[in-house]
Write a structure and sequence with these properties.
Structural class: alpha/beta
Strand order of the largest sheet: 5-4-3-2-1-10-11-12
CATH architecture of the largest domain: 3-Layer(aba) Sandwich
CATH class of the largest domain: Alpha Beta
Radius of gyration: 19 Å
Order of helices and strands: EHHEHEEEHHEEHEEHEHEHEH
CATH topology of the largest domain: Rossmann fold
Length: 270
Amino acid sequence: MSNREDTAVLATDMDGTFIPLEGSAQNQRDLRVLEQELKRHKIALMYVTGRHLELVLEVIQQEDLPRPPWLICDVGASIYQLDSSSRYVPLEAYVQQLQKLLDGWTRQELVDRLSPIGEIRLQETEKQTPFKISYYCDAPQLESLAMHVRQRLSELSAPFNLIASVDPFSGSGLIDLLPTGVSKAYALDWWVKHERMSPQSIVFAGDSGNDLAALTAGYRSIVVGNADPSVVAAAKRSHLDAGWIKRLATPTGHATTGVLEGLRHFLNQH
């Protein structure tokens, strides 16, 4: 697939984007149509998600989703490749890249240094990776605790970024620490270079704030119809400011349907 200029890869967020919305028969139908379109045009699929590997595998089974050859998980803190035994294994070259970013720090060292902040609680083991440290906290305290943790990271000169969010399912506050600069966009950019792909051969689809960096990284991009209006506006503004023409699709269809509409939009440009 290397150096192809036509669409070779659909890289897509999962929740709110590729996964059919609950109760949407249209999304369910369009999932099957989307699979057919990918096969017909020989387009590879890649999930780019905040989910950890176990949650990705769980939803693939539950929703009968296609199993792509590549996964970017943990908001960009891990990349997996499907091996000959149909198991997802970490991409070793990316592991080495993230180790360089940590500049000698280990996750345990940082966990120990943050342990005096008693209001943050480490998430379950399966939600942790060597390069992502995840905490729970009470949602009303999220903003102040995030500020406290950021201050501590600065004092320690620790090469980590903080992402604060609220779990839409449980309502808990979430604090994720990733190596500085790491995001979905960082991981996708690294993978594109590693695989010697042409950036023009990638279409990226997303719906939320943590997709914005990838939606505005120069790839042809799809912002599905259920995206927050602020994400749509920011993507449009960024593409306009960069002078990118015909690289952004904003379909009206929600989630899976929007991905299908957006992909067809770009396929019809050829």
